[in-house]
Amino acid sequence: MKKIFPVLILTFLSLACSIEQVVLLPLPTSTAAPTSTTTYTPIPTATPVTPTLTFTSTPTLIGQKTPTPEQSPTATVTPIISVTPLVMLDLDSPTPAPQMDGFVSVLVSRYEFFKGAKCEPSSVEFTVQAANPIKTKYVLLFARFKSMRAERYGKWTSIPMQAIGAGTYFYDLHSSDILEEVYFQTAWVEYQLVATNQAGREVGRTDIFKEKLAMRECVPTTTP
Fold first, then answer.
1. Comparing C-alpha atoms, which of 180, 14, 9, 212 is closest to residue 111?
2. Among 47, 138, 142, 191, whose CB has the most other CB atoms within 10 angstroms?
3. How far apart are CA 7 and CA 12, in angstroms?
């Protein structure tokens, strides 16, 4: 027993020294493994980059008057403004005269007459003068009705005029002489003159006279 005890002491001491050596040994320094870093690269797009506009607001001072600069003796140039004058319509100005090829004159006794034969005047007299009495053999009066309320026309009526000598022709026109009289009560009478030679060839023609002659409705009144 006495021999075992010193052995245990020596064993304990040797174990303590070995433990101290193990503790005192420097630990190896661990080197951090390199870490792979992924860098984000933006993908270019087709959308243009619009620069941001910066607006600097100018403060407005309320109640502050801007000093009036002193006038210097400089010449003042007044701009000349060109103004287009307005065209004034003269309602009394005569309308352009119609062409009268082959005729010297066309005379009408009045500007309106009444439809039928119960109201007077019931007719209008036409007197025309041919420009070339030698070549002119016949003169035709063409007439038709035109409504005063709508674009509605009657049929053209060809009426031979009476020769009274020296290239002058005459006709007394009544409403019943014109076609489709029954369809019109108050209307314009449009007319045109045409001159022909002996063979029937045209030697003169006027324009169509429009809104120059009016036919009025006849409304007879009883006289007490």
1. 212
2. 191
3. 9
Which residues have CB under 8 Å from 175's CB, separation 6+? 113, 114, 115, 116, 122, 181, 215
Structure tokens at 142: 């063409």
Q: What is the mean pLDDT of each run of 10 residues along the chain (224 residues)?
A: 56 53 45 48 42 43 46 43 34 66 96 96 97 96 96 96 96 97 96 96 96 94 66
Question: Is the Cα torsion angle 140, 146, 151, 153 positive or negative in sign?
Answer: negative
Specify the pLDDT at position 221.
Answer: 78
DSSP string, 51-93: PPP---PPPPPTTPPPPPPPPP--PPPPPPPP-PPPPPP-TTS
Distance CA 104, CA 187 (A): 28
Local structure of 21: helix, strand or coil = helix
Complete domains list, the chain, with CATH: 100-216 (2.60.40.10)
Burial letters 171-204, b for 16+ CB under 10 A, else e: bebbbeebeebeebebbbbbbbbbbbeeeeeebb
For residue 9, the surrounding DSSP H or E stretch is helix 4-24
**So what's the pLDDT on residue 58?**
43
Q: In the block, which residue shows the tokens 């007299």?
A: 125
**Can you give the length of the chain in residues?**
224
CA atoms within 13 A on the CB side of 17: 5
- Report the predicted TM-score, pTM, of the whole model to 2 decimal places: 0.57
